[in-house]
Write a structure and sequence with these properties.
One of its GO terms (molecular function) is indole-3-glycerol-phosphate synthase activity. With 272 residues, the protein is α/β, with parallel strands linked by helices. Helices cover 43% and strands 16% of the residues. The chain has twelve helices and ten strands. The longest helix is centred in the first third of the chain and has 19 residues, at 3-21. The mean pLDDT is 96. The protein binds the ligand O=C(O)c1ccccc1NCC(=O)[C@H](O)[C@H](O)COP(=O)(O)O.
Amino acid sequence: MNILDKIVARKREEVIEAKQNKSVSELEKEDLFARKTVSLAAALRNASSPKIISEFKRKSPSKGIINDQVSPEVVTFDYANAGAVALSVLTDIDFFGGSFSDFLKARHANPVIPMLRKDFIIDEYQLYEAKAIGADVILLIAACLTPAEVVSLSQKAHELGLEVLLEVHNAEELAATIGENIDIVGVNNRNLKTFETSIETSIALSEQIPDSFVKISESGLKNAETIHRLHGYGYKGFLIGETFMKTVNPGTALADLQIDLTQQSNLNPLVL
Ligand SMILES: O=C(O)c1ccccc1NCC(=O)[C@H](O)[C@H](O)COP(=O)(O)O
């Protein structure tokens, strides 16, 4: 059993419990359910420079505790101020230390910026939850869903006004799950068996993702040089958690990266 299998097994239990505690019609009555969502895909598609999706991530299976001294409202407000195109907030409790409370605090501190509910979606019920906490985008991980599940969950997400980020690790997952209701394709550089990250995964898959899909690179991204390199392969967005969260002030870490990105593109305008 790899880590994804363990996470998904626990997630199935959580969803059963959640459905017993709150019905879909109760979720539909939450104030944020009626909120009009903001498009991350459009913000990325129209961007001429690399854009950062900044993640609030307390801990992870690969690194253990990353930062337990930070508050979601402060960090995400600082991220948005430092120019993040979107926020990603973990809502998985057991493996990532996230929660709906973290997500809601971040949403209330940042009413307009696109926000990704970062979790392991396996059931339509979780899409209603995502809408009820004010998410704009949900994640579908090809490695833990059948192609038919990707189709039905992405259709339902669109019905609810949510955008869909499809995450793939290899060409087989991409070919099996890419479809009409996918808004953004994310290539995850992290090997879930070894936890090693390699940007070669993003490079290898870049040409196989049709141009009609906005593409982003995820995990293990640390510096402006790598981001400019991947931007050259057509990646518009970059999902970064640990590099920021392991610092005392994650918002400042993003601001510093933005300065590096601008300086490097000024030195060599062709990298844009
Ligand atoms: O981060 C992990 O250890 C992990 C383990 C198993 C499944 C998923 C995992 N991470 C989820 C993510 O996609 C990352 O949080 C995201 O891409 C940001 O990555 P990073 O910048 O390396 O924190």
